[in-house]
Amino acid sequence: MTETHFRTMQVLKWVALLLALLAAIGSLDTQTRVEAAALCSGKDRASLLSFKAAILRDTTGTLLSWTGRDCCSDWEGVTCQPSTGRVSSLILQARAEDDESFMKGILSPSLANLQSLEVLVVSGMKRIGGPIPDNLSRLSGLSQLVLEFNSLDGTVPPGLGHLASLQTLSLNGNRLTGQIPPSLGNLRSLLQLNLARNSLSGQIPATLLSSMQRMQFLDLSFNLFSGSVPEFSGGPFGNLTNVDFSNNQFSGQIPNSILSLSSISSLSLGDNRLSGGIPDRISSLKSLSQLQLSGNRLSGQIPASISMLQNLWYLNLSRNELSGPLPMSLGQGIPSLSTIDLSHNNLSLGSVPEWIRNRELYDVRLAGCSLSGRLPIFTKPDSLATVDLSENSLTDGASSFFANLASLSEVRLRNNQLNFDVSKIPLPYNLRILDLRSNRLVGQLSAILNNRTGSSLEIIDVSSNQLSGRIPEISRGATSLKVLNIAGNRISGKIPSSISNLGKLQRLDVSRNRISGTIPPSLGGLANLQWLDVSLNAISGRIPASFLGLAHLQHANFRANRLCGQIPQGRPFNIFRPVAYAHNLCLCGKPLPPCPRNHR
Questions:
Q1: Tens of pLDDT along 324-381?
Q2: Neighbours of 577 (CB within 10 A)
Q3: In the record, which residues are listed under signal peptide (predicted)?
Q4: Which among 292, 311, 369, 548 could bridge 268 via Cys, Cβ 3.0 to 4.6 Å?
Q5: Which of 372, 366, 456, 356 is nearest to 418 (CA)?
Q6: CB 74 within 8 A of CB 85
Q7: Does residue 437 sit in helix, strand or coil?
């Protein structure tokens, strides 16, 4: 081996040793950092365990992971500061629409001991009740407090106004009462305030909005607030994009200060008691994309200035006292318009305006607008998903109306004077809601209720017409239907057992027809059924005992048939009012008199 080769080998060995040493140091450093990040404050762990102890039941499974000493890396929903091991974030969320996912208990005051907490979210737990702990005001570093969709009661703690760093405060969807504490006006850093869906009342404190210039999102909807719509004084509120005061008891006129919110994109004042006219200055809201003023007492004409709102795509002025004529400028303006609802005002349109028929719209609602004659033809129907022309005096044109609307998802034509054979109408393939109640329709029910429509339709209401034929057999694939109302027609024959294949059915009304035979016991398998009406037919036999399995049933009516035997003796059948069983042959048992032995 040459000296050069020997030196080369030595260098390579030293390099290998150096790399191994560096790797070991790196591994040790990584392990040290992991261990440091995993440190968990004993005080914070104890506070979290106190919170867990106040939760009597947890179907989310989240708290199952809260075992052992390492709350920073092993406990679901908990995040810590890597350098200190103090809890900085607690996020516990469940899906609000999932009834089986919840926590039952209270919010433990021990949460206030998490002194480094920046984010506290307990959302969608449904059964966490009791008051919001007053001592949460000690969490001086808190930037987000979200306690949505629980069952919290009591008042909004005034001490929350001391959380100077708070940027998001959401108490949406609880059972809170009382007034908004004026101290919330001290939250100058607040970007989002959501107190919707509670039972809060009284007037909005004048101080609430005067100092919240950074606010971006404000939702006070679905409460019991009264008085005037709060003024936006001390502006300019240049960041405010969403304001929702709907579903309260606000009165008076739309305040001028709202018309100075230059950045607002969504304004909802619907379902209050507002009066006066829609201000001409509405056109100053250049960024407005959604305007919801329905369900008030607004009067006068719709201002032509609305046509100047270039970004407006949603316009709902329904259920007011607005009068015509409609401004001509609407035909050339509002270029972004996609959804329009002018229903139930004092408008006498006669026919659907040409500018509506010729637009590419998504949702058109003109119920109760004194329309007459033929159903309209929309010239750009490809995007149209919803049409509501109910409670007018329309008479014909159904065939061309439906043939032109292949993309239709929802159609409501109830309470007109339409006269056509349903078997000759091409229903759109993806139709979800069909409401033809109270017209003069004829033809076979099977043209509307069949295996094809049963797989897409969720609501069928053809009650109070002149339809005939039988209730058709239902295949197992017809799984979408939730509401079937065929009351007040000329339907005959039996109720087929296969109707139990409608597994999502919540409401079934076959009353006021000519139906005979017996009630199939298979209907007891409709686990979601809430409403059942078979009254005023010629149905015989017994009320099946299997109906005791209808756990969600809230209303049932068996009146005026030929039923006999014992009423199922269990809730709710034995506590319904006796009138629900009146005028039958020989029904007995609670709530009616006891059965003779031979009728049990």
A1: 899 989 988 999 999 999 999 999 999 999 999 999 999 999 999 999 999 999 999 9
A2: 9
A3: 1-27
A4: 292
A5: 372
A6: no
A7: coil
